[in-house]
Design a protein that fits this description.
Strand 1 (13-19) and strand 2 (22-30) form a beta hairpin. By secondary structure, this protein is of the alpha/beta class. It has one domain (3-293): Alpha/Beta hydrolase fold, catalytic domain (Rossmann fold, 3-Layer(aba) Sandwich), CATH 3.40.50. Helix 2 (86-99) packs across helix 3 and helix 7 (166-172) crosses helix 10 (206-230). It is 43% helix and 18% strand.
Length: 294
């Protein structure tokens, strides 16, 4: 489906360009200080369609597919999970914003995009001026506090990170079934038809599934250790907003503000009365929090 024909991002340009030798799909629109929006798994940048228009009245919005996801390139990897560590993904986004003319910017990331965002803030502290993360705690803390509930509720962290090609073959046998099973925390009614079409179109691509698995393999094998090196040593210096779903697992399992205070010097945040997919379940509340913060 050509989303240039779907009135979800009116006034935005849909582009694909090469950054750090990887082709990245993104949309850009609006005016004002730049705000980069990063999506999570198993979605694409289209997840921001309910908030992008309002945000673009104040900010120049860049909503981008992560490496390997959606319409972005599906690069190969190696034993070090090159291209799929959050450090690698963050570097691509920094280069993208630089080439688009933005030497510094705000960033907001949901789910996997939140992990790219906070790695960006740790590695590029002079560039990131404010950061918001949606419904996550840091990878290091998530793995370190893993228990029966985590292993059951976030089973996919361990399933997707299994050696290739086990998870890929199982998922690709029926990708639509897996996608809908995985996102059943909030049921399909929160996903607009056009957005769901975009998510499923790309998830049916076997290379997308391979890249998603490599993303999770990188988390277990590399990102965890990058986080371990930074905790208590290299704090996020810019203001950090933490939002999470009151009906999702972060609320049930953690004290997210307290956890993030170990990682950042200036942390604020609160829950929103929804599940995991804040910008699609509660777009008005999510957008208002982002506008007030940024």
């Amino acid at each position: 489906m050509d989303f240039k024909k779907v009135n979800m991002f009116e006034g935005f340009k849909l582009e694909t360009q090469k950054f750090n030798n990887i082709n990245i799909r993104y949309r850009i629109g609006g005016k004002g200080y730049p705000l980069l929006l990063l999506h999570g798994n198993p979605q694409t940048h289209v997840m921001w369609h309910k908030v992008a228009a309002k945000l673009s009245k104040i900010f120049t919005i860049v909503a981008s597919d992560l490496t390997g996801y959606g319409g972005s390139e599906k690069p190969s990897t190696d034993e070090n999970f090159t291209n799929f560590t959050k450090r690698d993904m963050a570097s691509v986004k920094v280069e993208m914003m630089r080439k688009l003319g933005f030497q510094d910017f705000f960033v907001c990331g949901h789910d996997r995009g939140g992990r790219v965002a906070y790695r960006m803030a740790l590695d590029h502290s002079q560039i990131i001026k404010k950061i918001a993360v949606l419904d996550i705690i840091p990878t290091f803390d998530a793995f370190n506090s893993s228990n029966k509930e985590f292993s059951s509720g976030y089973y996919h962290w361990y399933f997707l990170s299994q050696p290739s090609p086990l998870p890929e073959k199982l998922i690709n046998a029926n990708p639509d079934f897996f996608w809908k099973w995985h996102t059943n925390r909030i049921k399909e009614k929160f996903f607009d038809k056009e957005a769901l079409n975009d998510y499923l179109e790309y998830f049916r691509n076997e290379e997308t599934v391979r890249c998603i698995c490599d993303d999770y393999r990188a988390a277990l094998n590399v990102d965890y250790f990058h986080d371990k090196e930074d905790k208590f040593k290299n704090k996020i210096k810019c203001p950090l907003l933490v939002l999470w779903g009151k009906k999702a697992k972060i609320e049930e399992w953690y004290d997210p503000i307290k956890i993030w205070q170990d990682w950042a010097e200036n942390v604020t945040g609160n829950s929103i009365d929804c599940g995991h997919y804040l910008p699609e379940e509660k777009p008005d509340e999510t957008c208002n929090h982002l506008l007030n913060f940024f």
